[in-house]
Design brief:
It is a single chain. The chain is α/β, with parallel strands linked by helices and about 450 residues long. It folds into two domains: about 200 residues, 3-Layer(aba) Sandwich (Rossmann fold); about 190 residues, 3-Layer(aba) Sandwich (Rossmann fold), CATH 3.40.50.2000. Helices cover about 50% and strands about 15% of the residues. Helix 5 links the parallel strand 2 and strand 3. It is globular and about 65 Å long.
Length: about 450
């Protein structure tokens, strides 16, 4: 009995020490956030130079809100554009399953918020998620009182998760992805990450690799759900706009789309194009971030390249070499109007962007060597024949010419795109099963 009692005492002491260590780490984490507060304001001001929207709704970032729902709330957090678009199929199913609830979508960036407005108009509530200060998170939760919270992809905020746990709010991490680089970052705060993942009600990862990395950080019973982005239905309006854009670009011209390009990639692409001749080629460049529209316009002007802004909304004459996609929320239309697309962020070590949207409309894609943010989707697309991997800008242009000169090969890639998408659908069904298990689909009495 003595040994049993001693073992229990040792376990109790060990648990107390771990709890105190955790509380200390949370305290130090929160203290660091307070020390960063001046930098946060400076960063908002800096970003507002090119995107004035960053200075709007600042109060929301600290838990002060002017809107309030009049129904029970299901809350989804989608940081920016990609995560917001990924909510489409899930939001549609949630509306049908929970007609007596209100959907609240929170964002971190103005572009995410704009995308939400374009997708859902006023049928959902939308605000910024507050910064991870305990007082701000508590104000947010008390104001909206969500019955369920859903974090999309890679949103692990230590205070947010802990306070939801204390308030008894079920919080899911859905469509979760965890790159090797991100996992290494969270591993630096191993105890905080372990506690946060343990306090989540459920985690559903996109791939087995994502699940393994989350598990290594302390998550338990991680499900594999696939990727919600495969379940998106391209809006009819965007497909129609794609047809209109193609008519503006020129039906007979060959259209190559450089989608979601990042800083430095446009220069590499333009340099490579000088060394190859593709008759009637029209290059369409759509920068990832709208604040770079003016930068790319200046780059094209300095090089003497004849270009036209998409915002002019008129036919593109034969002498125009480049269309600058200076519009928001039209990526599906750009893909639908293109013969072939390069997925930006992959030519330089940014980690790549989502290639699934291009495949959803049957547009073959080229990707560079840096795709670690979307590694599994890229691997599957290449394996399916829907995408081709290139190592540099010169290789991309060579592949571009080969495909544009071989309509049969390009047509086969289009067919592979559709098969690739169809074979990977189903993540929305799995997500909904998890949600219904936590939130019965019945109206509150």
């Amino acid at each position: 009995m003595f040994f049993l009692s001693s073992a229990r005492n040792d376990t109790t002491i060990h648990n107390l020490v771990k709890t105190r260590e955790l509380h200390l780490m949370i305290f130090l984490y929160t203290l660091a956030l307070w020390l960063l507060l001046p930098y946060i304001f400076l960063r908002l001001i800096w970003r507002a130079r090119k995107q004035p929207e960053y200075l709007r709704h600042i109060g929301e970032r600290f838990g002060f809100y002017s809107i309030k729902g009049d129904k029970p709330i299901i809350w989804l957090h989608a940081v920016s554009v990609g995560e917001t678009r990924a909510t489409q199929s899930l939001v549609t199913r949630l509306r049908a399953t929970y007609p007596y609830h209100q959907i609240l979508i929170t964002h971190t960036t103005p572009t995410g918020r704009t995308t939400s407005k374009q997708l859902y108009d006023d049928s959902v509530l939308r605000v910024y998620l507050p910064y991870d200060y305990p007082f701000a998170v508590s104000k947010f939760l008390r104001h909206f009182r969500p019955q369920l919270g859903i974090l999309m992809e890679t949103e692990i905020w230590f205070n947010l998760i802990h306070i939801c746990h204390e308030f008894g709010i079920s919080l899911l991490l859905l469509n979760a992805r965890m790159s090797e680089k991100s996992a290494q970052g969270y591993a630096r705060f191993a105890q905080l990450a372990h506690n946060a993942l343990g306090e989540l009600t459920a985690i559903a990862a996109q791939t087995a690799d994502d699940a393994a990395r989350l598990t290594s950080l302390g998550a338990q019973n991680v499900l594999i759900m696939g990727n919600l982005k495969f379940d998106i239905e391209p809006p009819r309006a965007m497909l129609e706009l794609g047809k209109q854009l193609r008519e503006q670009f020129g039906i007979a011209r060959k259209v190559f789309l450089a989608a979601s390009t990042r800083e430095g990639e446009e220069v590499l692409l333009l340099d490579a194009l000088k060394n190859i001749h593709i008759p009637d080629l029209l290059l369409v460049i759509v920068p990832r971030h709208p604040q770079r529209f003016a930068e790319i316009a200046n780059l094209l002007g300095q090089r003497g390249i004849m270009f036209q802004r998409r915002s002019k909304n008129r036919a593109v004459s034969a002498e125009i070499q480049v269309v600058l996609g200076d519009s928001m929320g039209e990526m599906f239309a750009y893909y639908a109007a293109a013969d072939l697309a390069f997925i930006g962020g992959s030519l330089l070590p940014y980690g790549g962007q989502n290639l699934i949207e291009a495949c959803l409309v049957g547009t073959p894609v080229l990707v560079g060597p840096y795709t670690h943010n979307f590694a599994e989707a890229t691997r599957l697309a290449i394996s399916a024949g829907a995408a081709a991997l290139i190592q540099d800008a010169r290789g991309m242009i060579i592949k571009l010419q080969h495909l544009l000169d071989d309509p049969k090969a390009l047509c086969e890639m289009r067919q592979h795109c559709m098969k690739f998408v169809e074979s990977n659908r189903g993540a929305t069904d799995i997500s909904l099963q998890i949600i219904i298990g936590l939130l019965p689909n019945k109206p509150d009495k």
